Amino acid sequence: MSAVRFRKIRAIALSCVAAGSLAACTTVAGAGVAPGTPITQAEAQQGAQYHDEFVAEFGGEVSGPQASYVRDVGQGIAVQSGLATTPDAFTVTLLNSSVNNAFAVPGGYVYVTRQLVTLMNNEAELAGVLGHEVGHVAARHSARRQQTAQRNQILGVLGQVLSGVLLGDSALGRLGQEISSTAPQLATLSYSRSQELEADKLGVQYLNSAGYDPRAMAGVLASLAAQNSLDASLDGRNATVPEWASTHPDPASRVQNALQLAGNGTGVTNRDTFLSRIDGLVYGDDPAQGIIEGSTFTHPELRLAFTAPDGFYMMNGTRAVSINGDTGKAQMSGGSFSGSLDAYIRQAFQALGGEGSTLAPQNIERTTINGLPAAYGEARVTSNGSQVDVVVFAYQFPGNQVYHFTALAPAGGIGVFNPMFRSMRQITSSEAAQVVPRRLDVVTAGRGDTVRTLAARMAYPNAQEQRFRVLNGLSSSDQIIPGRQYKIVIRSK
């Protein structure tokens, strides 16, 4: 969650899919352009127009030698697409995001998050991911999806299910959309199953033409599937793709297809080069955007912390933190403050309902939470014959900074969030100073090293061996090879 501002990207510009699949981004540029046609002037202009917004939406741009390396690899694979004849026609950006995500847009703009890069194990995998995204652009998938994207209003997934209730086009539906859009894995699905598989095919072709091992595409898809499963296990949730996302093939189902596409092809992986060039990348949350440790979210710059309810898991986004569970959903974000918590809460309700909405709290109560002036409002909304409770709980911090939770749950069940509402507090300067990022550390295995000894160095209190195996693309039976390089995650000093 950004310490600077909370923003929503223009609806016409972006639709990304992550957390379990190579992501995609949809724009309207390229409509009516035949597949294989080089970048048009209109596409280049639109890509440039929205570039800064894309970067801001995903936590900003990583700079330095690691970003330069990703740029060089990305430009090298992108030129294989025929969209341009020179590598410098492509702008490849390494994003400061803790979400596994990548996308490309018409105009030669290619993006990948640092978190997804840390999950990879060689340069060929990086090239394969970026090639997949460029493949979407080369095939003009976004142009073909234009009408569907407009119908869904790009960020509009109203097929959210809460306790069996389908959220419709209502105030509640818009609230569900608002909350879910902060969680990258719940964003609008941009591409169909066939389009994703076509992009995989093009990505493998680009790997072959660039001299990389074409099996790398299957490797990174397998790592994504393993990471999905591990994340779900650690969060205590189901790792399967939800019903409404069934049109988008998950990584596990695409691994075998990618291997078939690769056939008996061979090529370089540049594993050691890759590991040496990404050594030191920030892993997981950046403290500048707040960090999640277990069930606690701490933001050292905003000087706040809170704890999610038992059985809920959190995801940190650029604009807000989402809190998700089987019995409700919530998000924590901030907004402009005029000096009145009551007015702030009423404005939050009105914003949830959208333009012309009469959504408002039934009443507003004032209280104090851990020394902070606070207030909350609640409303009960009927949607498709069922009732759902909506709460906005706001806190005034020193300096007239205000942050709030928006929560929804089936009628009568909003109390599940009461412990979280009561947990919000201001942290001390010494607590803030102790929040440091995790980083990737590439180490060489010694003769006496095992999976257990290397995993014990992972900066996590739990699931060290599982995390180590997923991070390094190791199966449950793979063993350490002395003299070989491996990735571990450590605390920055």
UniProtKB/TrEMBL annotation:
- Protein keywords: Hydrolase, Metal-binding, Metalloprotease, Protease, Zinc
Query: Gene3D superfamilies under this entry?
Result: Metalloproteases ('zincins'), catalytic domain (3.30.2010.10)
| Listed GO MF terms | metal ion binding; metalloendopeptidase activity
The processes (GO biological process) annotated in the record are: proteolysis involved in protein catabolic process
InterPro entries listed in its UniProt record: Mito/Outer_Membr_Metalloprot, Peptidase_M48
Cellular compartments per GO CC: membrane
Q: Which CDD domains match?
A: M48C_Oma1-like
Q: Name one Pfam family in it.
A: Peptidase_M48
- Protease listed as a keyword: yes
PROSITE patterns linked: PROKAR_LIPOPROTEIN
Cofactor(s) it depends on: Zn(2+)
Lineage top rank: taxon: Bacteria
Q: What is this protein called?
A: TPR repeat-containing protein YfgC
The organism is Croceibacterium atlanticum
